[in-house]
């Protein structure tokens, strides 16, 4: 059982590495600051979640093997995941909205809801 959980944990970490790599490529290739902001938020969110889920699986594996340290590790990793699920998307959105209001150059938007109510707060 422990060996299977190790492979599952490693698979999630590799998945997180894939999302971090794909986001980095997107960051280098995107045309403007808003598209790059979306790619960087994906790196921070999806790349981190692969590592967090892999760490949670590893902590459960340690608990099943009888290690006391597994519970501490489980709580810490769960808190990291919880705080990042709240902070990363909200922070990325706030930074993009501030850049829009500041007038950062961008390619043409398909839908511009900020422009409709730019002066409403």
Average pLDDT taken over every residue: 84
Anisotropy-based shape: elongated
Structural class: mainly alpha
Secondary structure: number of strands = 0
**How is the biggest beta sheet arranged?**
none
Low-confidence stretches: none
Gyration radius, rounded: 19 Å
* Span between termini: 54 Å
Order of helices and strands: HHHH
Percent of residues in β-strands: under 5%
- Summarize the amount of helix as a percent range: over 70%
- Total number of helices: 4
Question: Would you mind describing this structure in some detail?
Answer:
With 121 residues, the chain is mostly helical. 81% of the residues lie in helices and 0% in strands. The protein has four helices and no strands. The radius of gyration is 19 Å and the shape is elongated. The mean pLDDT is 84.
Compile the SSE list and pairings.
Elements (H helix, E strand, L loop, with lengths): L1 H28 L3 H32 L4 H34 L10 H4 L5
In short:
With 121 residues, the chain is mainly alpha-helical.
What structural keywords apply?
121 residues, mainly alpha, 81% helix, elongated
């Amino acid at each position: 059982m422990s060996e299977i959980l190790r492979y599952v944990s490693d698979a999630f970490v590799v998945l997180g590495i894939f999302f971090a790599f794909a986001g980095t490529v997107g960051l280098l290739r995107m045309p403007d600051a808003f598209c790059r902001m979306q790619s960087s938020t994906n790196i921070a969110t999806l790349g981190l979640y692969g590592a967090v889920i892999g760490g949670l699986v590893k902590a459960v594996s340690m608990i099943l093997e009888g290690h006391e340290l597994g519970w501490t590790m489980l709580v810490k990793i769960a808190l990291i995941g919880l705080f990042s699920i709240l902070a990363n998307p909200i922070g990325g959105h706030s930074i993009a909205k501030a850049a829009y209001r500041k007038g950062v150059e961008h390619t043409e938007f398909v839908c511009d809801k900020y422009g409709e109510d730019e002066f409403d707060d």
